[in-house]
Amino acid sequence: MTDKTFPVQNAGLGFRRETIDEMxxxxxxxxxxxxxxxxxxxxIGGVHGKQFxxxxxxxxxxxxxxxxSIGGPSPLDTNFVKDVAKFIKQxxxxxxxxHLSYCSDDGHMYDLMPIPFTEEAVHYVAKRIQQVQDIIGxxxxxxxVSYYATIGQxxxxxxxxxxxxxxxDCDLLLDVNNIYVNSVNHSYDAIEFLKQLPGDRIAYGxxxxxxxxxxxLIVDTHGADVINDVWNLLDKAYEEFGVFPTLLExxxxxxxxxxxxxxxxxxxQLQNKxxxxxxxxxxx
Length: 284
Prior knowledge:
Shape: globular
Distance between the termini: 19 Å
Radius of gyration: 18 Å
Oligomer: single chain
CATH topology: TIM Barrel
Largest sheet: 8 strands, parallel, barrel
């Protein structure tokens, strides 16, 4: 994958309204790209709208959606997708990603619900992804999600993910923390799962912290520091697939910017380790 072209580069950090003032005063050179939920910024004007525009003019951005509900039973909200397409063009967004889950029926559930791992669901979701891609004019990146129950399971999680990506001809947002969380909650080998993902489809990655509810139950919260086991899994991902752009997610209990940037720099250090190894092999 050394010759793969990614939509963004290096290590990223989520862009949040509550950290704007601190970001304006900080050295953001460790950040290669930023990510926002389009739902939180489409149509925003005033001071925050101007500040956001300032950042998108100076930094590469990707969007990670919250409400597309790609596996939901209700018809796809094509008007919303058209708004996203305009937002992508307006701010030169490099990639649009969403969760391989659903969050709405007649109304929004404000949670990410698991899609049944069935052949029928594969065809249904793939068709909806293709519909989104036709509207936005580019590939959608689908994220492997954390889940806490299986419903009507016919396929394994990895079989389901791979089947959707293949049939939809879409990209993958590889969330390393979600693999770790699911491996504990559903008792499988995280590294073996990782190795079966389609590395050539990776657009970018996520890494995050979580909450240990019990020895056999982890909740994906994005509210804590990344633990060593998850860092080690990211290391394995780079070993398996080569270096891909990776973003630190932190959605609450947000520390000061120097603490966030330290974790961003830890991503960069891992990436540089594999870039150095590649250069050493090339010159040998």
